Every structure is written in structure tokens, then in C-alpha cells.
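Can't paste images in this forum, so I'm doing it all in text. The chain is below; anyone willing to post the predicted C-alpha cells underneath?
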Amino acid sequence: MRKALLMAAAGVFWISLAQAQTDILIEVDTGRTQGLFTKSTVLMRAILAKPAKPTDTALLYFRGYPGISKIQSVADKERNLQPFMRKNQRIFEEEGIALVVMDCPTDQWASCEDNYRSSKEHADDVRRIIAKLKEEHGLTKIYIMGHSMGTISSRWLAKNLGNEIAGSIHSSSMNGYNKSGYANSLNGFDYSSITAPMLHIHNEYDGCQHTPYRTVKGYARDNLVTVRGGIAEGDPCGGGNLHSHQGREEVVVREIVSWIKTGKVDRFIGE
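Text version of the structure:
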């Protein structure tokens, strides 16, 4: 009898988890084709983690290096979230924010570089995803977020989408020199051209040479949340270390959620 009760309780637990949110593959036709001889349709894909309770708010997330998600099914969601986001998905769900893992379109899977990310074409491709989120899922309040390499997209989209979005978040922004030329399009970027609210979040001792804190501090001004403390272990530009908020994962995600809900900027978080 006791065993049966435990099994029943376990069943209820897993059912409740399954009902917490639903992962949905979003796919749109960009209107482009690729291939010299056998033309194939260029697709833009994303994965929507839709909370169980109704919401109108979505956060479109652009991952860090290599910046290309190669989404083909909802099974690709976990590997395309940096650990600080993956470990704290429940917070977005609990707070009624639909997390949307974004990809580059299939014609950019070889190398989704600055020339595409800074283009109006990129903005138009994302508009198609946004339209589907609005029309089919009632998600009308759209925020854009990039981490590291993903901030190339998040900043250009913030500029090119204007007030079509509710705001943009830029985590560990890439600005420093790198041999591949990533983020060169942001040299001299005009932040005054961004009309929707924006938030920058960055560890003050980020050790990645491509994402120097001092550069962000120079332009972010009152829109900067400085993360203090954390764990400086592993690749300084990888999915951990201070660059990716290791040791401060939850406090960073809660700050992102708080800003989306209130617009308040906490100048320092962590220690």
C-alpha cells in the first residue's frame, strides 16, 4: 500500500512538472532560398518555453559563442542555453515570462557573423518570429536578450526594431578585439539610437578579453547592473567563470526578471 502511494505521489509530481511549461518549436519561412542547383527554403527557428499560466511577455534569447543554435527540434533547447540561464529556467516560468531560444536562419548556419547580425534582414527575420509569437501564442510584450556573442544581435536588433520591442538586455557584452572580427560592427555604435529601454549586466572582473567591463561601463551609464563576486574558474570566455555569471547565476536571472517587471536598475548585485 505504501509503495502504491509513493508511486502515485511520484506520478502527480511528474505530471505537475509536465504541466509547468510547454516547449514548442517555432518555424517560419524567411522568403529566401539557398543552394545553387537544389533550392531549399531558408528557415528561421526558435524554441518557445511557454509557461502554464497565461502571459503576454516573452524574452527572446540569443546565445553566446558560437552564436549558432542549429535548432531542429525542442530537444535542442538545453544545449543552447548558457548554464546560468539553463539552471534557472524555473524562475522565468514562475514569473510568467516565456523564454524563447533563438537561432540564426538556416542560410547563416556556416557562420552567423556581424554583416548579417547588423543587417535589416536579421531584424526582418526576427520580426517573423515575433509575429508568430503574437498571433499564435498571445505574446505581445517582447524583450530581446543577448549574452556575449549574442549581444551583437541584441544591440543591433534593439536599434533596428525600435519600439516594436519592450526592451533589450545585454549580458557580458562583446566589445574587445578578436581575430575573427566579431563585434567589429559595434565600433562607434550609437546607443542613443536605441529607443526602447535597455539593460546592461556585467561582472566587474569579467576576465574574457573580448568582453571588457570597462568598455561597457563607459557607455552603459545608468543602465548598467554590475555583478560582484562569483567563481573565476574554467575558460574565462566560456559558459562558466565570471563571464557567464558562475556563482551568481540565480541573482543575475532574478535581476533580469525584476527589470522586465519593474524597469528598476540595481546598480550592484552579488556581494
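The helical segments are 2-20, 83-86, 89-94, 114-117, 120-137, 150-161, 213-220, 249-262. The chain has a mean pLDDT of 92.
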